[in-house]
């Protein structure tokens, strides 16, 4: 078990792949877009 193993986290890192052991990190929405500051800040 190590770098060559497809099923371990270290093996996934070595191969540069993702899976159940190493899921992708999803981007979080910024707070500004969530509450809609940009749409409210338009000058009259």
From TrEMBL:
Compositional bias per record (Basic residues), positions renumbered to this chain: 1-13
InterPro entries, sorted: Ribosomal_bTHX, Ribosomal_bTHX/bTHXc/bTHXm
Pfam families reported in the protein's UniProt record: Thx
Keywords: Ribonucleoprotein, Ribosomal protein
Domain of life: Bacteria
Region (Disordered): 1-22
Gene Ontology cellular-component terms listed: ribonucleoprotein complex; ribosome
Secretion signal span: none
Similarity annotation: Belongs to the bacterial ribosomal protein bTHX family.
Protein name: RPS31 30S ribosomal protein S31
Organism this protein belongs to: Flaviramulus basaltis
